[in-house]
TrEMBL record:
GO terms for molecular function: potassium:proton antiporter activity; sodium:proton antiporter activity. GO terms for cellular component: plasma membrane. Residues 34-444 form the Cation/H+ exchanger transmembrane domain. It catalyses: Na(+)(in) + H(+)(out) = Na(+)(out) + H(+)(in); K(+)(in) + H(+)(out) = K(+)(out) + H(+)(in). This is Cation/H+ exchanger transmembrane domain-containing protein. It comes from Cannabis sativa.
Length: 535
């Protein structure tokens, strides 16, 4: 009885905008939900079917149901899904932590494959979803949608959920797949947002060759400029910390600098209408390569855990947030007279997602295999199916983009927009729960031989995951690694030799010019009592 009163009172206070006691009920409720997610996530650690994202989503849905029950079915709104909150406060720590923890050597070794899947693949998937939506939705009683809406749907539903995929795949059991899927996921999110922003910034009512070329030019500019900005802020952070060595007086200040500089890069990218996701991701890579090694040893440990905690908390909040908002009664009432149409739209979108992902995963995997000489380095058909399946989940990025396109301040009263929002919710819930539940068994079934085979010298390179919690190993073998370039043939000659050559020249340039200016691994401060790096 007290719990029902607690939920009802929280909702009533939220609806009373002038109430000063609103946060005294809502914030404790979300703290309780956080704690529940942490405890349940720990209990499900070894579960074959469930993961933390699904459990958080389920907790959010149950909370929404309880709120609906206590308010007599009038509202489930504790918070309106706010795109500004999501993009400005929840997404930055997740993406930065991914870049900060990335194994750079493995990321750039698979850079071509990751960029093909993450950038080119996203564009292919977006085109298929947009064209399919134009073809099918025009025959359904959805309502008048503009060409920009159809193109936005392609960008919305081509954004995979890298957070959920990261929790589903195990980097120890499937290191290569984990590397490719997660690397693709980060680039995919950035590409989807860049594509979405480009669509919104152009008048696409009358498309011609000039507009198409301008669109492509703007898309490439956003990609390059965002990456350059992230690298610049990362290098600036490393230079400031190395030059001033703030930690000799206060580790608090250098930790604060490590936290605030990447957020500055993110907000600066937002200010100049760039891809903030791409900016903060590459800022994280550069800071882990240079700035992280310039701080004191205690600050290294502290920043590593702070970044991980902020990322974890943001992920949990997003899934609880999505679960609660999914039961907002307002949007469901608008489409309640046509439940068949709503289910049909959702089914078509799910089908287009399946086809769109298959349209680039299998052809690009085939091209990738042409560049490999050893059979152990190639992706077999079962591994390709796993990659295809693992990227089918849609999450908070899709939700945020859909709300940005089809709502105003989190609300919509247009029938066609309500169809798009409710269909997005259905796709996100279905893909996260159903595809998420089935991913672990599929990995076990299709990759059973690969998982239980002892590692051999030929497959040793595949056993290094892209990401890891041990930041101390971010640059393992960086200075001692050697390259034995095999005699190449055909396509391998075009792709393998340049990548090895560029890496070798980069190492020489980095050791000769970059590290003396920006520090990095092996940096030894000139001040007495400063930490030294034995490696």
């Amino acid at each position: 009885m007290e719990v029902s009163w607690f939920f009802a009172e929280s909702v009533s206070l939220l609806k009373s905008s002038g109430s000063d006691d609103h946060h005294s009920y809502v914030i404790p409720l979300f703290v309780v939900l956080f704690l529940a997610c942490i405890v349940i996530g720990h209990l499900l650690e070894g579960n074959r079917w469930l993961n933390e994202s699904i459990s958080a989503l389920a907790i959010g849905l149950c909370t929404g149901c309880l709120i609906l029950y206590t308010t007599g079915g009038r509202s489930s709104h504790l918070l309106v899904f706010n795109g500004e909150l999501f993009f400005n406060f929840l997404l930055p720590p997740i993406i930065f932590n991914a870049g900060f923890r990335v194994k750079k050597k493995q990321f750039f070794r698979n850079f071509l494959t990751i960029m093909l899947n993450g950038a080119v693949g996203t564009i292919v998937s977006s085109a298929i979803i947009s064209l399919g939506s134009i073809h099918f939705f025009g025959k359904m009683n959805v309502g008048p949608l503009k060409i920009a809406d159809y193109l936005a749907l392609g960008a919305i539903f081509s954004a995979t959920d890298s957070v959920c995929t990261l929790q589903v795949l195990n980097q120890d059991e499937t290191p290569l797949l984990y590397s490719l899927v997660f690397g693709e996921g980060v680039v995919n999110d950035a590409t989807s947002v860049v594509l979405f922003n480009a669509i919104q910034s152009f008048d696409l009512t009358n498309i011609n060759t000039a507009i198409a070329l301008k669109f492509i030019e703007n898309f490439m500019y956003l990609f390059v400029a965002s990456t350059v900005l992230g690298v610049f802020v990362g290098l600036l952070t490393a230079y400031i910390i190395k030059k001033l060595y703030i930690g000799r007086h206060s580790t608090d200040r250098e930790i604060a600098l490590m936290i605030l500089m990447p957020y500055l890069s993110y907000m600066t990218a937002q200010l100049f209408d760039l891809s903030a996701i791409l900016t903060v991701f590459f800022c994280g890579i550069v800071m882990s390569h240079y700035a992280w090694h310039n701080v004191t040893e205690s600050s290294r440990v502290t920043t590593k855990h702070i970044f991980a905690i902020l990322s974890f908390a943001a992920e949990i909040f997003i899934f609880v947030y999505v679960g609660i908002d999914a039961l907002d009664i307002e949007k469901w009432k608008i489409v309640s007279d046509s439940p068949g149409t709503s289910i049909g739209v959702s089914s078509i979108l799910l089908g287009l997602i399946l086809v769109g992902r298959a349209a680039f995963v299998f052809p690009l995997s085939f091209l990738s295999n042409l560049t490999k000489d050893s059979p152990d380095d190639k992706l077999d058909f079962k591994q390709q199916i796993t990659i295809w399946w693992s990227g089918l989940m849609r999450g908070a990025v899709s939700m945020a983009l859909a709300y940005n396109q089809f709502t105003r301040s989190g609300h919509t009263h247009l029938r066609e927009n309500a169809f798009m929002i409710t269909s997005t919710i259905i796709v996100v819930l279905f893909s996260t729960v159903v595809f998420g539940l089935m991913t672990k068994p599929i990995v076990k079934i299709f990759l059973q031989c690969s998982i239980h085979e002892p590692s051999s010298p030929s497959s040793k390179s595949l056993g290094v995951p892209l990401l890891g919690y041990a930041v101390d190993d971010l640059e393992a073998d960086y200075q001692t690694s050697s390259f034995n370039i095999p005699r190449p043939t055909s396509l391998r000659m075009l792709l393998s030799i340049p990548s090895h050559t560029v890496h070798r020249y980069w190492r020489k340039f980095d050791n000769s010019y970059m590290r003396p200016i920006f520090g990095g691994r092996g940096f030894v401060p000139l001040f007495p009592g400063s930490p030294t790096d034995p490696h």
